[in-house]
């Protein structure tokens, strides 16, 4: 959307932003600021798409490093795209893996912008070498083992003419990090040995560094090439050569995370999945989003809007989901009011996530049941609601435990649909294919309705892995029962009925097996 405040003749600005090596937490604050103000984001194949959550802009990928081949833009096409977008007044973020100026052709893009008279800024990023080293426990420099570090291209064939002097590299007094070198690993190791580097020099190959799919293979110059081939490593990978590789075991941390390497399906609507996916990644897992439902506004806001001016009539307002909080309070704000409209009532939530959503509006929950389910909420509300007016900000569908229980407790309950919760027709095809290939280790089921939708959305090819390569973890006994009813076997069940509890159940199940 063009900014109406800005005359359309004004030239926009381009930010060349380093996205870091993969972990979405390794973006700079400046990078996040640029993304937040972008009208267009052009990102390359090394960039973790999770970073796009910092932006509301249209995002286009310029090339892929793995997976199904998409259209790959040539460098001159990318330059042209940046220049044209800026000329139409857009704020453009060009997001590049690692650091834009380390083997990233970022300087060529900057030169093209400069020649075209487009204002630009370059935001450094954490380059793959430092990211990979830190996440594998290798210190690239070390008082006793490495006084220098060199970033080297592995792209040039050392057996042909190359600008690299392998004799100088062999005597370099520190750590060598080869970018783009995996496919030439044998030739690189051989050339270093021929130039005089000891065959026993330790080498580490790190693939997909800083992501849950990080894999590390260590060896020496003599044997690393066959070891890497046997391990079937994938791009992007880099090669670290030097004595400090030996010290890796003393400083390992990332690969020891409790869910490291686990691929976990998270069936949440896109809008909510972020936090859960990030938490899974923090525990070391690779999240795969499987949205089974979509969250959309009510068919009409008529009823909600009519109720907004009467909220202070209620003694209790009850929220049973994060979406319920945003549905009611978001609408309150959009229509020109604020939380003073609910100042008289007390607030109840079904659990800590919903309470955390209230906190975003600077509101504190008065009641969070000890057990995060509708029955417990109803039970704990019971003593407070006889003869009282209660408002429930709810979804278009869901369980009706609350109405039954609260009516029995003598409350006068008003149900207000503040969002719709609709089934999708199909799962995203890339995620479904991953399940069909048996690539998921776990799928989390976070509600009975999600269990039921998943049973319909999974193909027969996907279902053959369930309970075998792909285990199912359930958030609560109610969810487990619903899952079993539709033929989904449950392998782990949370004792605390939150996503955190579900992850803990998976961690326990893995520990029990090993
Ligand atoms: N500008 C980028 C490098 C681009 S060149 C940066 O500063 O990191 C691409 C090469 O970077 C790949 O061939 C690989 O050697 C390395 N690389 C990038 N991301 C990586 C990752 N997550 N793990 C391992 N190597 C990576």
Describe the structure.
The structure is a single chain. The protein is an alpha/beta fold and 514 residues long. The protein has four domains: 14-126, Tetrapyrrole methylase, N-terminal domain (Cobalt-precorrin-4 Transmethylase, domain 1, 3-Layer(aba) Sandwich), CATH 3.40.1010.10; 129-255, Tetrapyrrole methylase, C-terminal domain (Methyltransferase, Cobalt-precorrin-4 Transmethylase, Domain 2), CATH 3.30.950.10; 263-292 and 425-513, Rossmann fold (3-Layer(aba) Sandwich), CATH 3.40.50; 296-423, Rossmann fold (3-Layer(aba) Sandwich), CATH 3.40.50. Helices cover 33% and strands 19% of the residues. The protein has 18 helices and 20 strands. The protein has helices at residues 29-37, 75-87, 106-115, 128-136, 166-171, 185-194, 224-231, 270-282, 302-308, 322-334, 352-359, 374-385, 401-408, 429-436, 448-457, 460-463, 477-485, 499-513; strands at 14-18, 40-43, 58-61, 92-96, 120-123, 148-153, 174-179, 202-207, 215-220, 237-241, 263-266, 286-289, 293-296, 316-319, 346-349, 389-395, 412-423, 442-445, 471-474, 492-493. Strands 3-2-4-1-5 form a five-stranded parallel β-sheet, with helices on both faces. A five-stranded mixed β-sheet has the order 6-7-10-8-9, with helices on both faces. α10 links the parallel β14 (316-319) and β15. α10 runs parallel beside α11 (352-359), α12 runs parallel beside α13 (401-408) and α15 (448-457) runs parallel beside α17. It is globular, with a radius of gyration of 27 Å. The protein starts with 13 loop residues before the first strand and ends with a helix. S-adenosyl-L-homocysteine (SAH) binds next to α4, β8 and β10.
